[in-house]
Design goal:
single chain; 545 residues; alpha/beta; Gyrase A, domain 2; Isoleucyl-tRNA Synthetase, Domain 1; four-stranded antiparallel beta sheet; 15 strands
């Protein structure tokens, strides 16, 4: 079949609606979902409930009429060998039950094609630029940056797996006020180290790392005027190493300083002026962002001639499109929420659709140690860094834990739980399922299980395991639609739990040859899916633990 079974069943329901009187009033979109309880079939639709008000009939009555129409359409659809039953259940849900042969065939695809069987060509090669982290080079990365790094990298992995052409980018704010303050902070610490009494302003960077930079600047005889650039480069090397150790590598580091030198900001302004979206008022230059739904127009060049933050950002985003990307994804912190409409307005001013830019707000994370939240202050350098988390719990647990909540939700990260080697630790639980399967498969390395008869898999736990494997594609679809990879962590825990339940109740080895062979194929399929999911998360897939 060219389409997947969910698309085929959706098309079947639509044909049935159009074939009967129901279709004349049906305006609602038909959606087939996986039921929350596997006792109620393999796919379900609530279309009868959605049509109830328009048709002025009870949902169950509409559902019963729809089931009759569906059953008439099944022979023509070519799905008669796959569908075992269509039933009305609950408040008026139409539930589809599939034949076991369908699941055997899908399992066979996974064990013969491997991870290729899990891929979907949803991206069609579309060029996507994901910009994330983009922290100012003024200090080590915090856990807030770490969460953005995990989300952005995992999302890029998923989109790449779905055949989008992905580039990861870090926007480097390497000029301006923050860099100036950084340089002055190093200068004062340098004077302090030389024995001079200094007054250290509250808004300067006060972490111990400033002393380290000052000492290195003395060693290299860096002039005071160059301390900002020197300190920024020094910190950037640390950031790059931290991200690399976290398994996050960027294709391009985009310098704001180089953007300013390139003339692209002036070019962008010239185009906006030609289009009539710039105007002068009170000695300042304004962008007419209200033309695109912003709540007020925005200053881009102040009356003193200095640029606002928006000025380079307008040029930067247009340059993304000029480089051939048709979908831009930005991951920002919660303090940037009000900035979205301004950037959306700017890309529309250049003729792009607002849908061509997706801004994902990644909420903050709170680190817990010994049951107590760790207090943070970036300026004072009093915060848990990515490096500290990596040193304490490792990259695998760090990445998995940072992804365990929706990006729109605040995340509590418990360091003590992340270090546990038990089922209480979610990443350990998933990796242990993978390692356990590898151990079983190693024990039969020299035995050929040939072409197993998968119809030997008749137990409820066996079929549940196959069904859970087949949910993987739907989970990736959700990640694409929401631009949020967290569902993969949920799914992998569910798949691991389903596997452990099967394994606790049914022996794989030591059964009749046909059953042993089929169960070996079953767990091989689970291993492939677990391995693929962990790989997309950037988490290792241990073969022994």
């Amino acid at each position: 079949m060219q389409k997947n079974i969910q698309e085929e069943l959706t098309a079947l329901v639509i044909r049935a609606l159009r074939a009967g009187e129901l279709g004349k009033l049906a305006q609602e979109e038909v959606i087939l979902d996986l039921p929350t309880d596997s006792r109620f079939g393999d796919f379900t639709t609530n279309i009868a409930l959605k049509l109830s008000k328009a048709l002025k009939n009870p949902p169950r009555q509409i559902a019963a009429a729809l089931v009759e129409l569906i059953q008439k359409e099944i022979p023509e659809s070519g799905l008669n060998e796959l569908i075992s039953q269509v039933k009305v259940e609950g408040a008026g849900f139409v539930n589809f039950y599939l034949n076991a042969d369908y699941f055997y065939n899908q399992l066979n695809k996974i064990i013969t094609q491997g991870k290729d069987a899990l891929k979907q060509d949803l991206g069609k090669g579309r060029k996507v630029l994901i910009e994330f982290v983009s922290a100012n080079p003024t200090g080590s990365l915090s856990v807030a940056h770490a969460r953005q790094a995990a989300v952005g990298d995992c999302l890029a992995n998923i989109l790449g797996f779905l055949n989008f052409s992905i580039q990861r980018e870090y926007y480097l704010n390497d000029e301006g006020n923050q860099i100036n303050i950084l340089g002055k902070s190093v200068q004062l610490r340098r004077e302090e180290l030389a024995g001079k009494k200094t007054e250290f302003p509250e808004n300067y960077y006060q972490g111990d790392y400033i002393y380290d930079i000052a000492k290195e600047a003395d060693k290299q005889k860096i002039k005071d005027a160059s301390l900002g650039d020197f300190a920024g480069d020094y910190i950037l090397k640390i950031i790059k190493q931290e991200l690399s150790d976290f398994g996050v590598n960027f294709d391009y580091w985009y310098s704001q300083k180089e953007l300013a030198k390139s003339g692209k900001i002036d070019q962008a302004f010239s185009r906006l002026k030609e289009k009539g979206f710039l105007f002068e008022q009170d000695g300042a230059l304004w962008f007419k962002s209200t033309a695109f739904g912003d709540d007020k127009d925005r200053v881009i060049i102040k009356s003193d001639g200095s640029q606002t933050y928006l000025a380079p950002d307008i040029a930067y985003h247009e340059d993304k499109f000029n480089r051939g990307f048709s979908w831009l994804i930005n991951l920002w912190g919660p303090d940037h929420h009000g900035y979205i409409n301004r950037i959306k307005a700017s890309i529309q001013a250049f003729g792009h659709s607002p849908e061509d830019l997706s801004v994902i707000i990644v909420q903050l994370a709170t680190i817990f140690r010994n049951g107590q939240p760790v207090q943070m202050s970036t300026r004072r350098g009093q915060y848990i860094t990515l490096r500290e988390v990596l040193d304490e719990v490792g990259s695998d647990a760090s990445r998995f834990f940072f992804l365990m909540r929706r990006t729109s939700s605040h995340l509590d990260f418990d360091l003590e739980v992340a270090k546990k080697q038990s089922s209480e630790n979610p990443v350990y639980y998933v990796q242990y399922a993978h390692a356990r399967i590898c151990s079983i498969l190693r024990s039969v390395t020299n035995q050929s299980n040939g072409n197993p008869d998968l119809s030997a898999l008749k137990e409820k736990e066996e079929l549940n395991l196959i069904k859970k494997m087949l949910e993987f594609k739907a989970v990736l679809n959700i990640c694409l639609v929401t631009c949020d990879p967290y569902m993969v962590t949920v799914y992998l825990q569910e798949l691991s739990e389903t596997f452990h339940k099967f394994y606790d109740l049914h022996r794989v080895l030591g059964q009749a040859e046909a059953l042993t062979s089929a169960r070996l194929a079953l767990i091989k399929g689970v291993k492939i899916v677990l391995s693929c999911g962990l790989e997309l998360l950037g988490v290792s897939q241990p073969e022994s633990m």
